[in-house]
Amino acid sequence: MKNKKILLANSLLLLALLLFILVPFWAIKTFKLVRPISENVSLILSGSASVIVLGGVALLYCLITKRKFKNVMVIKKISIKQIYLTIFVAFGTYIFAMGINPITVKLFPVAIKDSMQISNLLSGSTTLLGLLVVVLLPAFFEEIFFRGIFLDAYDGVNKKIKYLIITSIFAAFHGNIMQIIYVMFLGFILLMVREYTGSIVGSMTLHAANNAISFILSKVLMNYMNNGIESSALKSAQEANISISSVLLQASILFLVGGAIIYTNLRKLKEYKDTDSRAKRVDQEENNDHLKYIVRDGNYMVTDGEIRAGKVSNLTKYIPLAIYFVSIAVIVVSKY
């Protein structure tokens, strides 16, 4: 069953990638949009694709596995304390990003192109639309897809391997060099918050807070700095010309500050969860121990044919995932 769920999730990932490519083209032809498309229209297309593709695929996963949406996604209320601790983590991740981005630009100068595109999109769009598409929609639909479907499908897989796969999928899905290193880091923190709060609402809160901080500060800087987009582009170009030692020194300071904020509040989230659910965990462990014996006994009854089928499945379930990463690599290379 576990192998089938992983194969299903990986296959749906390929479907989501294909739809994300096709939906915008279909919308442009259907509504006869003329290029170049305005920033507001681009955001609307992006937001619509997220709702249709990520939301639709998540529902399809639930239908195929015949389980309720809230159970698959683990939608539970979190406390006020967990909310404000998560928001503090978001401030830490933003500070951390300020250290990662210059390193990315230094290592990959082509990332300046991504920075320009993001700046153009943010500066040319309305604030209300930006808050909806950049802050709220990703916080919900990306979470139910990446921290919902894939955490459910990969349940039982080694934690380190599971986290590595999910964060890699999440980072690659963004499809640009500028964000890939930071999104890998953010994806890992989102998984930690999801684990420590025991609910996808926790990772949604972090995702929304992180995007909101980034979006609002970017908007403020673009509105009040002289030459808006040009200043942003000039800053990125200057970062590429700074010596690697200076970049690493600045990044180290930001990593220490951001890392301290993240570590402190993640630890408090974990302590809160451990304290709040200690009694329930004891009961659950007793039940799990009983179930382990049942599962273990059942495993001895597996026939040789079933074992061989399992070995084949262990190989085939990752084929869609390999195709996904190769496809993303081709898309990114062709883009630059």
Textual characterization of the structure:
This protein has 336 residues and is mostly helical. It contains 14 helices and no strands. The chain has helices at 2-30, 39-65, 69-73, 80-107, 111-124, 127-153, 159-173, 177-197, 200-224, 228-241, 244-276, 278-299, 304-316, 319-335. Helix 1 (2-30) packs antiparallel against helix 2, helix 7 (159-173) packs across helix 8 and helix 8 (177-197) packs parallel to helix 11. Mean pLDDT is 84; it is low at 226-234 and 293-312.
Shape type: globular
Supply the helix-strand structural class: mainly alpha
Mean pLDDT across every amino acid position:
84
Distance between the termini: 41 Å
Q: Sketch the topology as an H/E string, one letter per element.
A: HHHHHHHHHHHHHH
Radius of gyration using CA atoms only:
22 Å
Number of separate strands: 0
Discrete helix count: 14
Strand content: under 5%
Q: Uncertain regions: pLDDT < 50 for 5+ in a row? A: 226-234, 293-312
Proportion of helical residues: over 70%
Question: Structurally, how many domains make up the residues?
Answer: 1
Short account of what is shown:
This protein has about 325 residues and is an all-alpha fold. It has helices spanning about 1-30, 40-65, 70-75, 80-105, 110-125, 125-155, 160-175, 175-195, 200-225, 230-240, 245-275, 280-300, 305-315, 320-335.
Write the layout of secondary structure elements.
Blueprint: H1 2-30, H2 39-65, H3 69-73, H4 80-107, H5 111-124, H6 127-153, H7 159-173, H8 177-197, H9 200-224, H10 228-241, H11 244-276, H12 278-299, H13 304-316, H14 319-335
Helix pairs in contact: 1-2, 1-6, 1-14, 2-5, 2-6, 4-8, 4-9, 4-10, 4-11, 5-10, 6-7, 6-9, 7-8, 8-9, 8-11, 9-10
